[in-house]
Amino acid sequence: MLGSIALDTIKTIYGEEADLIGGSATYAALSSSLFTKVNLVGIIGDDFPDKGKEILKNSCNSIKDLKIEKGKTFRWGGEYPKNGDDRETLFTDLGVFENFSPQLSSENSNPDLVFLANIHPELQLSVLNQCNSNPFVITDTMNLWIDIASESLKKVLRLTDLLLINQSEVYDLTKTKNMELSIKKIFEMGPKKVLVKYGSKGSTLYDLDGAFFSVGIVDIPKVIDPTGAGDSYGGGLVSGLAEGLTIRDSMLRGTVMASFCIEGFGIKSLYNSNIEKVNERIATLRKT
Ligand code: AMP
Fold first, then answer.
1. Which of 24, 39, 153, 188 has minimal Cβ neighbours within 10 Å of its Cβ?
2. How far apart are CA 119 and CA 254, in angstroms?
3. Does the beta carbon of 8 lie inside 6 Å of ligand 1?
4. pLDDT tens digits, residue range 16-40?
C-alpha cells in the first residue's frame, strides 16, 4: 500500500487539533489492520512522533519500505465549516514528499494486490512500474491531481482495475455532469470497476460488465471529524478483497470502517475500534 503519512491540523465545529497523525496511507493501513496487515510504502520526516511510528509498526505487516528522511513530515490542514461533506484545505506543506521517490524492496515487488491510496500520481506510477507481478490495482485520487497532474493520473488509470473516487471528482475527471456518461468515460480510461463514494449518501459500484449496486451508510449521530473517511473506506475494502470477499461485502466493511473514523478527531476512533464492534455494524448495515 502506497499513500501519504502526514501530520494534520483539523478544524471542525467541535474544535481544532494540530499535528494529528494522519495521511491517506495511515488511515487506510489502520482500517485494514483489523483484518489484513499491509506492507506500507511511504515517507516520514525525522520529526514524526515516536508514538506514530509505533502505531504504524503495529498496524502493518511490514514497514520496510517506509522511508524516514531528515526533514519535515508532510503536513496538511483542513477545515469543515459545516459538519458535512464539504471541506476546505487550509495548507499543504510537502516537506520530505518534495523529493520522494519510492523504491520497492524485493519483498514488495511481487504483490497480488496493490492499493494506491491518495498521493501524487507520479508516485503511484513509480510503484506500479516496480511491480514484477501483474497485481490487481486499486487506485484512489483527489481533485488536486485531476487538476494539476491529469496526464500522470491518466497513465495510472490505464493500469488500474478498480478506481475509488468521489462524486465531485468523477465530474472533474470526465468534465461531464451525468453519472452514467461519466462512468462510461472512466471505463474508456482503463478501470474495469468504478466505486463512487457519495459521502453521507453511501457508495455505488459500477462494473464494466454492466452490474451495479449500492451500499448505504451507518448513521453516525455526531460526526466529529470526517477526515480520512474515504481512506478508511479504502482500507476496509482492500482488506476484504485481499481475503477474497465479494466486492459487496468488502464495500460493507469499508463503509463500517469509515463510520468509526468519523466519530473522533484524527485516527483516534478508528484506532480504538475492534472486530466485535465492526461485525456488529456490518450486521446492522446488511439489514438496512
Ligand atoms: P480523506 O479525508 O479521506 O480525503 O483524507 C484525508 C487525508 O488525506 C489527511 O490525513 C491528509 O493528510 C491527506 N491528504 C490531504 N491532501 C493530500 C495530498 N495532496 N496528497 C496526499 N495526501 C493528502
1. 188
2. 19
3. yes
4. 999 999 999 999 999 999 999 999 9
Mean pLDDT of 187-209: 96
Q: Is the CB of 92 under 6 A from ligand 1?
A: yes
Distance from residue 10's CA to the centre of ligand 1 (Å): 11
Using 50, 70 and 90 to split pLDDT, how confident is the model at 138? very high
Beta bridge partners of 79: 11, 88
> Does residue 225's CB lie within 6 angstroms of at least one atom of ligand 1?
no
Report how far residue 4's alpha carbon sits from residue 22's, in angstroms, rounded to the nearest whole number: 8
> Residue 245: exposed, middle, or buried by beta-carbon count in 10 A (0-12, 13-18, 19+)?
middle
With both helix axes pointing from N to C terminus, report the angle between 24-33 and 247-261 in degrees, rounded to the nearest 10: 110
Pocket probe for ligand 1: among 9, 88, 142, the residue whose CB has the most ligand atoms within 8 Å is 142
Å from CA of 76 to ligand 1 middle: 7
Is there an atom of ligand 1 within 6 Å of 144 CB? Answer: yes
Nine-digit cell string for 173: 475527471
Q: Is the CB of 282 under 6 A from ligand 1?
A: no
**Under 8 Å CB-to-CB from 276, ≥6 apart: which residues?**
none
Q: Characterize the bridge pairing of strands 88-93 and 74-79.
A: antiparallel
Q: Which of 97, 61, 59, 75 is nearest to 18 (CA)?
A: 75
Question: Per the confidence metrics, is the pTM higher than 0.85?
Answer: yes
What gap in Å lies between CA 270 and CA 131, rounded to an integer?
A: 30
**CB within 8 A of 215, min separation 6: which ones?**
202, 203, 204, 248, 251, 252, 255, 285
For residue 262, which of 92, 84, 140 has the smallest C-alpha distance?
Answer: 84
Distance of CA 141 to the CA centre of its chain: 8
Could you tell me if the CB of 231 is within 6 A of ligand 1? Answer: yes
pLDDT of residue 81: 84
118 Cβ closer than 6 Å to some ligand 1 atom: yes
